[in-house]
Specification:
This protein is an alpha/beta fold and 209 residues long. The protein has helices at 3-8, 17-20, 25-37, 54-64, 77-84, 93-101, 115-125, 141-152, 170-208, and strands at residues 42-47, 69-75, 108-112, 129-134, 158-163. Helices cover 54% and strands 14% of the residues. Helix 8 (141-152) links the parallel strand 4 (129-134) and strand 5. The longest helix has 39 residues, at 170-208.
């Protein structure tokens, strides 16, 4: 298969995770240049996408609406661990990348290992649109938008801020699993403790009699 056909597979109807996951950033820039020469508008977003849910899918669909080629910078396991704690990610990078490759709005997935690497890649690719999510409870969206435009504006033509697309979140789901698991554990311990108490009472009743 020649290079052009391989690149065109990225926007084909058949899902090809091998073509859509491009971890080599120099190769990615080459692919972007190809699409840009074809008149395509490049959209860039990034994140962990750990335990992907409907909010992620809605966000990616909305992001894709701002251009032709949607590229997702996916945080590596080490990056996620550094940003979110030692118990994350729940889903390893390879599986998260493949899940995104199966997501219809997504054309390309690449790996991000550090914030510095993400910034450098944006400087090199110069996307037409950068899409970012907003979920802060301590900052107004207008303030966040202005801050992100100041931060990413030098590397792109436009910055789009999307509010949370669903009530759920990965963190909330993890918290729910932990809480439900803890409650189940408490019930098991209580049941065992009650049985043990009855057994001890019966034992002393027996030897006392």
């Amino acid at each position: 298969m020649n290079k052009k056909n391989k690149i065109l597979n990225i926007i084909g109807t058949d899902v090809s995770e091998e073509d859509r996951i491009i971890e080599d950033h120099q190769e990615l820039i080459s692919v972007i240049d190809f699409f840009r020469n074809e008149g395509k508008k490049i959209v860039w977003t990034m994140g962990a996408y750990d335990i992907k849910h409907v909010g992620h899918d809605r966000y990616l669909r909305e992001g894709k609406s701002y251009g032709d080629i949607l590229i997702v910078g996916l945080d590596s396991d080490e990056y996620v661990k550094k940003e979110k704690g030692d118990n994350r990610p729940i889903v390893p990078y390879k599986e998260r990348a493949e899940q995104l490759a199966y997501c219809r709005p997504v054309n390309i997935i690449t790996i991000l290992n550090t914030k510095e690497e993400a910034t450098k890649l944006m400087q090199d690719m110069k996307p037409d649109v950068v899409v970012l999510s907003f979920s802060s409870t301590t900052e107004a969206i207008e303030v966040y938008e202005n801050r992100m435009k100041e931060k990413y504006g030098p590397y792109c033509k436009e910055v789009k801020i999307l509010e949370r697309q669903a009530e759920t979140s990965t963190t909330a789901r993890i918290r729910l699993v932990i809480i439900e698991g803890s409650q189940e554990f408490v019930e098991i311990v209580k049941e065992c403790t009650d049985k043990l108490a009855v057994a001890i009472k019966n034992f002393f009743t027996k030897i006392g009699g």
